[in-house]
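Each lists sequence, tokenised fold; shown next:
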Amino acid sequence: MNARSLLPTLSATLLIAACSNLGLGGPITAEAPLAPTKGNAAAGTVKFTEVDGGVLIDASVTGLSPGKHGFHIHEKGDCSAPDGTSAGGHFNPSGKPHGDPAKGERHLGDMPMLVADANGNAKLGTILEGLTISGKGNIVGLGVIVHAAPDDFKTQPTGNSGARVACGVIARPK
């Protein structure tokens, strides 16, 4: 899904969110502020909005090396380890193999690659099927990890994405 095809979904989501601020109801949302792991500078925010059949993911990350970076939802909402390993492995409640979210079977926590520009900034807007914020496949309380290297979408169970450069915990707004 390219950015142009996602624009109507993002526009609708923003409109619904604006209505919710007026007390007219709105989407179910969550957010994960990303903080750098020890020795790294990556930081940002990942916003999650429940949509029909999945979750809209809107990520904005800075402080990355230019290029591709593995990006996953992890099984534990714990960023206490200096290297982010306390977040555990990829969120995979259905026991599927690691894979590319655009090409069939995958961990539910496998997300598309983050691609940082020459200044180390990356943005991603995508919808992932099978995730929820309020039901089965609930991601609230889980971790989000940005990796140093690209995800090869083949190596099991991690994608060979290298060190964890940022970590965040998914939480509902208060």
Notes: Residues 1-23 have pLDDT under 50 and may be disordered. Residues 28-169 form a domain with the Immunoglobulin-like fold (CATH 2.60.40.200). The two ends are 31 Å apart (CA to CA).
